[in-house]
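Aim 2, interim progress. The first record below pairs a target sequence with its structure tokens.
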Amino acid sequence: MRGTDDLAWLERHREQHHRPRRWWPLAAYIGTIFAANWAITTFGLVPVGFGLLAPAGVYFAGLAFTFRDLTQDALGRRWTYAAIVVGAALSGFLSGPLAIASGVAFLVSETADFVVYTPLRERRWLLAVGLSNAVGLVVDSALFLWLAFGSLEFLAGQIVGKTTMTLLAILVLWGWRALLARHTQSTLARAH
């Protein structure tokens, strides 16, 4: 019974002291959608390794998939879809056609991401992030390139760039979760 009380206390503590932290993934998600479109309009094509090029927004878009998963966990699906609309609307100030291509590609790819991420997240969270990002980045890359440029010429570069960012994000999240687990254990130990 004591373990249940400890978990209830910890949940109340988190809710009281960490409520503002629920919103950072939403802000980061909207920011990466806008930043991806800003980078494309500012820098055009960039090298991503292996002799490949991709539109410069590839790195921000790669991060966006992880922020999507975090937004869903913190706020739910509706907020996640709202973030896509807001990010695309803000991007409209940079380029209307890019904003439309980006918004449509994100909406479709994020739906594919949901289908993979949601059933896996409770059992194997990091695996869910990795697999859902892999599905989302392929769908997003193909759809965005086709809608924005009428060509899949940079598809390989898009996949390499977004995969690189996904792997970096997974490493950071793995470390963050390990630190969070240690903090939780020490908080529970102090509560006794």
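The second target in this work package is listed in the same format:
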Amino acid sequence: MAADALARLAAFVMVPANRVRLAKWFGAGLAMMAINTGFLYLFVDLAGASVALGTFLAAEASTLVRFFINHFWVFGLRNPTLRACLQYHVANAGAFAVWWATANLLTLLGMHYLLAGIAAVACSTLVSLATNFLWIWRRREGG
């Protein structure tokens, strides 16, 4: 199943028209790092939330903002649905689980935890890429 998804993703990347969407997707991801930091500052420093609550609120706010950026700008669609938003939340949870498991496994295997965290980002990015392009916002036949 994972090999099939990687093969489909590789075929997708080979289509020149898809590269623009991929560039937008990665650009949005980089911009979201700054936006998430702003949300975290807002919730912790300005609103006085604890770091635990502030990180949760910042993550949820960023997830919602990224969903709409992806829907409207990256994929050029209108009329976002609750179903797509819920799918995006599931995809984010899955990518987080992959990041967490990979970072911890690599650390247990002897890799420095910071390098393990960076390697884990690569793995979770692949999960996000696959779920975003091949599941949530996949191009449907006839649509």
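Residues 2-136 form one domain. This observation will shape the mutagenesis plan for the next reporting period.
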